[in-house]
Amino acid sequence: MLFKQQALLRQKLFVLGSLAIGSVLYLVARVGTLDRLQPICPIESRLPPREPEQIPLRTLQFKRGLLHELRKGNATKEQIRLHHLIQQLPRAIIIGVRKGGTRALLEMLNLHPAVVKASQEIHFFDNDQNYARGIDWYREKMPFSFPHQITIEKSPAYFITEEVPERIFKMNSSIKLLIIVREPTTRAVSDYTQVLEGKERKNKTYHKFEKLAVDSNTCEVNTKYKAVRTSIYTKHLERWLKYFPVEQFHIVDGDRLITDPLPELQLVERFLNLPSRISQYNLYFNATRGFYCLRFNIVFNKCLAGSKGRTHPEVDPSVVTKLQNFFHPFNQKFYQITGRTFNWP
Fold first, then answer.
1. Average pLDDT over the chain, rounded to an integer
2. Which of 100, 175, 238, 302 could covalently link to 254 via disulfide, CB atoms 3.0 to 4.6 Å apart?
């Protein structure tokens, strides 16, 4: 009896073993068939590509030094490939005003780890020849950056050039626009001073500011003089408001940026929806130059070029008063439109 039970058990085990081996062989054959029949484009290829890993900005700055290279526009081909860097159209533009502090503002915003700047004025939207080269040419002028960083460029001629608002609107109707302004008469004199210096370097003569700013025949302010015309901020802003709502503009106090830059920079951070990263540590006053310089980290500091902070010529007080009176009603309208008031005469 025991012998029959053992024989029956061995028979069952043999059958089960055969079934198991058969199943395995079937599965192997089936998998091979599936492998041969799989679609040319597997499911994985139809899924959206994974976002490249976003390396913490602090890691970039202090461990790899990559942020420093991006700030200088010196990313290598290997860094571009390894970190999936791209050239992006700007999401914010400093459109003016000339001699308002556009370069200082751009360099100070570059302190923020989420900001990268174009190193030069591109003059894409105000130069017909450049504009005809197309948007891809413009993009290629931008620095390499991470997708989550904001690219910013500045060309102060944009503010006063008639065609620019429409051209920028066609590129990006939701772009953020920064305008840095100074007291209009002071700005006009600064504008004159820069041109005068250029003339003197070429050994050319130039009229005095008073003669250019006031029409000698009518004794009225000469609005044909570009330095005066540029300081009529509201006239230019009204042209921009035909395309962009006032909420897309942020007005920066250029006079305050010289004397107390941090509060102005913090306002810009909020306008650009950036986390607050720029601190007093990043700004230090240079007594020799008479204005603030930038501290990016413990080894890299930067002051603006020596052309900044030029000494202005003495201007006839009566001409200064005439200009201040002329600009006053335009200033009042500018305050009303922008919602920002300045202590200008």
1. 84
2. 100
